Each structure stands twice: as structure tokens, then as C-alpha cells.
Amino acid sequence: MDKLTIRDIDVAGKRVLVRVDFNVPLDDQQHITDDTRIRASLPTIQYLLEQNAAVILMSHLGRPKGGPNPKYSLAPVATHLQELLGPDVTVHFVSDCIGNEVEDADAALQTGEVLLLENLRFHPEEEANDSEFARKLASLADIYVNDAFGSAHRAHASTEGIAHYRPAVAGFLMEREIGVMGKALENPEHPFVAILGGAKVSDKMGVIDNLLKKVDTLIIGGGMANTFLRALDMQVGSSLVENDRLKDAEALYGKAGLQGITMMLPEDVVIADAFNPAANHMIVDAHSVPEAAVEAEGWRILDIGPETAAAYSEAIQNARTVVWNGPMGVFEMEPFAEGTRAVARAVCYATRNGATTIVGGGDSVAAIEQMGLADCITHISTGGGASLEFLEGRALPGVAALNDRT
After folding, report:
1. For the purposes of burial, counting CB atoms within 10 Å of the CB of 253, is it exposed (0-12), middle (13-18) or buried (19 or more)?
2. CA–CA separation, 134 vs 165, rounded Å?
3. Which position among 21, 168, 306, 308 has the lowest Cβ density within 10 Å, counted as fewest Cβ atoms?
């Protein structure tokens, strides 16, 4: 990685402002239901504390639409963070992220202590990347650290603007995200297999185009596979299809062939007569969906079939580098989860066989965790949108703004 990290600077006795990604799910009682992102930030926080720094944390949570909303307060996160750090560390919380109250709390903060600011998005200036808002945030500290890879694709005040006012370096999580994925894209071991799923092919056109320059095999599943199938003149009934992307899908499929890249599409699929776990469903050949299913209202593809799952698994298990973003079907519904499960098991097998495996994107990460296979993946990315843009080859504003190594 060509950016400075917290290892490269002296933080002893300094105030260090860290952009973390504490955008965690909360239930109706404001209890955190998944603290993965908080735990991912702990190595950076603990290192700074051990180096005798005073640590100020800032994050967004949800979409409060530019104004205070108790539903999106970071107060529950402060409580949970205190539990994770233990009694030897004091975690303070302040009910804003700029202003007199924040400045007073900042001035009182001692080295070895943590101060968590309230939700950045309670101020519309955050997403607008307002320079004065960024300057006020920067005034709280001597050094700025970005450890929020999940927000690095956004040019916001706390991810890009603030870097213009203070020395700006990467935290350990940011370093790992960029390092692992960067190596996978720039210097992968082969065979290199990429697996793309999810609903819309339009979200991943740029990713596919970039990966075709790097991979040996590209596996397509999920709703986006329907658009490819339809582009190749296969019938897909009432399945989700982006008709305005049919020519693009056909062109990408042709490009893969010309470049000697294997693009794998479903050979058999699970179709159902409703988007419902209790719907009637059956397994059919993707090349010959029954005419009755095509003509009947409501039949649609909701998962890859067992033959496809087996073929995909074989390609994955023999890989040396695997990147996966997006499920193979509607895995939240039990009858349509097996395709995603098969891929998850194959990715896990590849890891145990010595491959580097990277999983990014909320749904595929959720599937891995749901199956209890998170521990057998080389790297699980904390950033869905950021990981997609990285795979597309686009510069991430939150990374580009950090200080370069010289």
C-alpha cells in the first residue's frame, strides 16, 4: 500500500481523530444485532491507546436525512464499545460532533481515553463535503486516521475533506482492506475465479469489465444472471431482467469469449410461482424452461440449480484466488438458499486448500456468517459499495486523500 499508516507516525501524547465505520444494525430496542464493524476497528483503537494517544472517534449511522434523530444515535455504540474495550479504558460520548460541547469534551480528554462523537450525518454538511464542517472536525485533533473502508468510496467531509487540514494516514483495517484486495487484483495467484451475484447487472457492469482483464473464470449468479440468460435468447418467465442492459450483457459475454475467459452462467435453475418461501417451485434446465412456466404469470428464477452449483463449486475449489460479491439466489428464503450455500462451502474449501479468498458485499457476507463459515475465509470486507468500486478499478476518495509514502 502506497499510503502512510498509523505505524509511520508518532502519536504519543497526540489527539488522534479516527473515522471509523460504526454503521451497525440496531433492533427496535436500540440493541446492536451485529457488532462486526465495531470489532474490526478495535486493533486500530487499541494500538493508539497503547501508544498513549487520546482517541476521538467519528462515524455515521443509517440515513437520518441531515438532522438529529434518536433512532440513529451512536449512544448505544458508545456503551457497547466500552464493554469491548473493558474497564481499563474510559469511553466518553458527546451528543454532537461539532460545537462548544464537543470542544469542551475534547479539551478534557486524557491520553489513553476515547471520545465518541455523535452521528456525523445529523449535519447535512457531512455528505456535502462542506469545507468549514471538515475544518471544525479537524480542529479537534493533531492527526487524522481513516479506518472506515466501508465509507472510503464517498467524498464526504469526514472521509475526504478533513484530510486537507491534518496529516492523514490509514488505520489497520483500511490498510488490510486495500492490501488484500489490491494484491488479489494486481498480482493474483492463478487460477483466479471471481463470483458475482446479486440482483442487478447494472450495478456490476464496470466490475465485470475490469475483472475480465484479470480473472481466468467469472461466475455469474443471482438475479443478474437472468439478464445474461435473456440476452442469450433463453426464456426466464417473470424473472427480474434489466431489458435496457441486454445488449451490454451480450457484449460482455462475447468479450469474455474473445479474451479466453470462461464466463459461467446457470445451466439449471430453481423457479417458483411467487416470491415467497411457500411458493411452488421446481428445478429446470436453464436452456429449456417449460413453456407453461414461461406463459404462466409469476414464475421466476430464484436460485441456481444443483448441476450449476456443482459446476461452480468445482471451478472455485480448484482456484488459487477467489473474489466473491453477491449471493446466487434469494438465500434469505430456505427453498432458494442452497446455491449460495454451495458456493460458500466451495470458497471455504478453497481457503483450506491454500487459496486467498475474499468476500465482500453485505448479502454474501451475511450468507457466510449465517453458515458459520466466516473463520475459513481469508478476508471478509467491511465495505459493500467500497469493495465494488475497488473491484471496478475506481479510485476511492477516502483512500486517495491520505498522505502518500515518499
Report:
1. middle
2. 8
3. 306
* Residues in contact with 221: Cβ distance below 8 Å, sequence separation at least 6, in sequence order: 195, 196, 197, 266, 304, 308, 312, 326, 327, 328, 329, 339, 340, 343
Which pLDDT score, from 0 to 100, does residue 362 have? 67
The strand pair at 268-272 and 281-285 is best described as: antiparallel
List the chain residues with pLDDT less than 70: 1, 289-297, 362
Angle (deg, nearest 10), helices 246-258 and 224-231: 80
Quick check: helix, strand or coil at residue 116?
Answer: strand
Known catalytic residues are: 37, 200, 362, 385
Of the candidates 183, 241, 184, 193, the residue with the CA atom closest to the CA atom of residue 217: 193
Cβ neighbors of 26 (< 8 A, separation 6 or more) are: 32, 33, 71, 76
Residue 390: what pLDDT?
Answer: 87
The pLDDT assigned to 384 comes to 76
Residue carrying the nine cell digits 456490476: 204
Between CA 175 and CA 321 the distance in angstroms is 19
At residue 295, the pLDDT reads 64
As beta bridge partners, residue 264 has 219
- As to burial, measured by CB atoms within 10 angstroms (0-12 exposed, 13-18 middle, 19+ buried), residue 108 is exposed
Predicted structure pTM score: 0.88
Of 176, 171, 120, 199, residue with least CA distance to 18: 171
All 3 cell numbers of residue 381?
470486507
Cβ(59)–Cβ(23) under 8 Å? yes
pLDDT at 394: 85
pLDDT tens for 228-257 read 999 999 988 888 899 999 999 999 999 999
Backbone angles phi, psi at 105, to 5 degrees: -65, -35
Give the H or E element holding residue 18.
strand 15-19
Backbone torsion region of residue 237, taken as left when φ is above 0, otherwise alpha when ψ lies between -120 and 50, otherwise beta:
left
- The residue type found at 346 is A
Q: Are 53 and 16 in contact (CB under 8 A)?
A: yes
Asked if 386 and 395 count as a contact pair (C-beta separation under 8 A), the reply is no
Domains in the chain: ranges and CATH: 6-174 (3.40.50.1260), 181-391 (3.40.50.1260)
The residues facing 87 across adjacent strands are none
Scanning 139-204, the segments in alpha helix (DSSP H) are: 172-186
User: CA 245, 396, 129, 39: dihedral to nearest 10 degrees?
Assistant: 110
